[in-house]
Amino acid sequence: MLKSTSEATGLKIRSHVLTYQTEAGPQFIDITDNVVQLVQQSGVENGFVVVFSKHTTAAIAINENEPHLIADMVEMIERLLPKGHEYAHNAFAHSLNNGEPPNGHSHCQHLLLGSSETIPLLDGHLTFGQWQRIFLVELDDSREREVVVQIVGE
């Protein structure tokens, strides 16, 4: 799981890649416990953690892990940028005859959510609010996703 490690003048950098199998979008996958475990193993006490999705159709978001709220967020994403809408990307993807699914909606949804979150690290702990959790948000079809977690500090 460890991709690279660097230390220079007391600064530590720990980089990891987490892999998840998603089911379908929109899907909110709580990855907080995996990130916390990496922080605990890192030996970094103070700094920050970057959580980054390597995909343009899967996002990273911080919010509350409450089932009704997640249902509201899924409904909002689907209402704002519905899968059934006509997107130029879909026509382009199909014109190439490359097997790419029509996923213009998931690229546009990603634009609203973003690729990463940065969390301050203080005394070996992520400085979350009481209810905050980190989510990998699948916006497209089922597939394997990679999330980079980079821990930087001393």
What does this structure look like?
There is one protein chain. This protein has helices spanning 32-42, 67-80, 88-95, 104-113; strands at 2-8, 11-21, 27-30, 47-53, 58-64, 116-122, 125-126, 132-138, 144-153. It is of the alpha+beta class. It has four helices and nine strands, in the order βββαββαααββββ. The chain starts with a strand and ends with a strand. It has one domain: Jelly Rolls (Sandwich), CATH 2.60.120. The mean pLDDT is 92. The chain is elongated, with a radius of gyration of 17 Å. It has a six-stranded antiparallel β-sheet with strand order 1-2-9-4-6-7, covered by helices on one side. It is 28% helix and 40% strand.
Query: How many discrete structural domains?
Result: 1
Largest sheet: 6 strands, antiparallel
- Counting DSSP H or I runs of 4 or more residues, the number of helices is 4
CATH structural class: Mainly Beta
Estimated share of beta-strand residues: 35-45%
N- to C-terminal distance: 21 Å
Order of helices and strands: EEEHEEHHHEEEE
Mean of pLDDT: 92
CATH superfamily: YjbQ-like
Radius of gyration, CA atoms, in whole angstroms:
17 Å
Could you say what the CATH architecture is?
Sandwich
Total beta-strand segments: 9
Could you give the order of strands across the largest sheet?
Answer: 1-2-9-4-6-7
CATH topology: Jelly Rolls
As a percent range, the share of helical residues equals 25-40%
| Overall 3D form | elongated
Given as residue ranges, the uncertain stretches (5+ residues, pLDDT < 50) are: none
By secondary-structure content and strand pairing, the structural class works out as alpha+beta
